[in-house]
Design brief:
Length: 338
């Protein structure tokens, strides 16, 4: 039995990961450490919460005393660090919490991992560390890091620190850098769920700038299968890019959602661009494909339909979210844009 500390397991990708892994395997014990920020929701884990090999610990990864206690209590030998402040727009509204959670929090986990001699530490990172691409080319693992937002710069700092723990202390660190995820349980501040929910509520769909920015989309289950493979078989000290080669312009996604939900394009509203908005992301994932045999199994056209249907079928989930603190955030971010 492996004791795996999963941080940030109540968020979008982490909860999908835990639900997926606990369905696949019974021989691992997952200890989910999550602070339950605005983005953390235990409802995401209702399929897992009663499983005997699942434990939840509410806490903050920046609290080293608490983190050390969790490592000791559960004899943690494996770590997958999903916990982060994850939204670029929020990092523009206020960067301090991004530095605290993403950089200091990762440092606290790395120090504990070193103290308790963990056997693998997987740092979940993002393709945003590479900065922005022009109309052609792909990010490879040897693309120099060049982050542009407070969010991506904090993730880059965490990656560099994790790699330094490998080089300096021999801590068995491995890093995954994934492109934009979509799927069930994504907090409706990110493009796809925000557009679906606004559309269902007949609210304007706020498209930044000219709408021609490109992201490379991957279904969350494909990301999590890749994480699992890197966790099991990835070489320590290495970075693995993860992406499904599905580049889309933002405006095309918005139109697709409108069409799927039978709504007209008059709902689209072009708004003031995001400051420092990266133009294009696109991932070369040949390393993980060739070395570990991973390949994505979901195509965008099919999985976006599944995703929209999930939001249609789970109105209670997102209605509870958008009735709370979300209102204030929405007003702050979009109030002076539209
Ligand atoms: P999310 O915002 O949905 O969830 C983050 C989770 O971390 C929440 O449950 C939150 O409560 C928890 N958390 C935040 N601060 C914490 C703290 N100090 N201590 C403990 N827990 C804390 O994020 P997500 O979209 O699921 O992203 C998960 C990870 O994947 C992040 O590291 C992110 O950078 C990375 N990533 C995300 C994407 C994407 O498209 N969403 C793409 C590539 C990489
Ligand atoms: P987002 O989901 O925030 O992911 P990221 O910025 O990490 O790639 O945004 C995806 C793209 O959609 C990005 O180019 C910004 C754009 N966008 C909008 O046009 N309107 C919106 O309301 C949001 C949230 C994003």
């Amino acid at each position: 039995m492996k004791n795996i500390l999963v941080t940030g397991g109540a968020g979008f990708i982490g909860s999908n990961y835990i639900n997926f892994i606990l369905n696949e395997r019974e021989d691992d014990r997952i200890i989910n450490l999550d602070k339950l920020t605005y983005a953390g929701n235990l409802e995401n884990l209702k399929d897992s919460e009663n499983k005997p090999n699942y434990i939840f610990e509410k806490g903050d990864i920046t609290n080293s005393e608490f983190v050390n206690y969790v490592f000791r209590k559960y004899e943690i030998k494996y770590v997958i660090n999903f916990a982060a402040e994850s939204h670029v727009d929020r990092s523009i509204l206020g960067s301090e919490i991004f530095f605290r959670t993403n950089v200091i929090g990762t440092n606290v986990l790395l120090e504990a991992a070193r103290r308790y001699t963990v056997e693998k530490f997987l740092q979940v990172s993002t393709d945003e560390v590479y900065g922005s691409l022009g109309p052609t080319g792909l990010f490879t693992e040897s693309t120099p890091v060049a982050p542009n937002s407070p969010y991506s710069s904090s993730k880059t700092s965490a990656d560099l620190m994790a790699l330094s723990f490998y080089h300096t202390f021999g801590l068995p660190v491995v890093i995954t850098r994934c492109s934009n995820n979509y799927g069930p349980l994504q907090f409706p501040e990110k493009l796809i769920p925000l557009m679906i929910i606004n559309c269902l509520n007949n609210k304007k769909l706020p498209v930044y700038g000219d709408g021609l920015n490109v992201r490379d989309w991957i279904y969350v289950i494909d990301h999590n299968k890749a994480i699992d493979l890197v966790f099991e078989k990835g070489r320590v000290g290495e970075v693995y890019n993860i992406g499904a080669s599905q580049e889309m312009k933002n405006i095309d996604i918005v139109k697709l959602i409108l069409k799927h939900l039978g709504k007209g394009e008059e709902l689209i509203e072009y708004v003031k661009d995001r400051p420092g908005h990266d133009r294009r992301y696109a991932i070369d994932s040949s390393k993980i494909q060739n070395e570990l045999g991973w390949k994505p199994s979901f195509r965008f056209e099919e999985a976006i339909g599944k995703t929209i249907d999930w939001y249609l079928d789970n109105k209670n989930w997102w209605q509870r979210i958008i009735s709370g603190e979300y209102q204030k955030y929405y007003e702050t971010l979009y109030g002076n844009r539209i």
